[in-house]
Amino acid sequence: MLHQLSKEDVNETFQIRSALESYCTLQICKEANSRKAGKLFKEHMDILNAMQSGDVEHIYDITIQHMERPKGINLEDL
After folding, report:
1. Cβ of 24: how many Cβ atoms within 10 Å?
2. Are residues 73 and 27 in contact, defined by beta-carbon separation less than 8 angstroms?
3. C-alpha to C-alpha distance for 2 and 32, rounded to whole angstroms
């Protein structure tokens, strides 16, 4: 049997995710002018451009590539 998530489980999961994303955003902002951040911003712009242009064939591929590639700005790098 699969574990069923309670409302509290879902709320806690989103709270933790929100806290991690906020922390990562703070770290990226501290290094916004670095080469590593420039690469990250370019990848985000590639994803946004694919969405805005309606390039549905590539949105998924671009996003997955972005998420699978090791980054220079990761929690373990801090």
Report:
1. 14
2. yes
3. 42
Can you give the length of the chain in residues? 78
Tens digit of each residue's pLDDT (9 = 90 or more) over 4-40 = 889 999 999 999 999 998 998 898 889 889 888 888 8
Q: What are 67's two structure tokens?
A: 């998420």
User: Residue 54 corresponds to which amino acid?
Assistant: G
Check the CA dihedral 3-5-9-10 and report its sign.
positive
Domains of the chain by residue range: 7-77
Q: What token pair was written down for 76?
A: 């373990």
Question: 59 near 47, Cβ under 8 Å?
Answer: yes
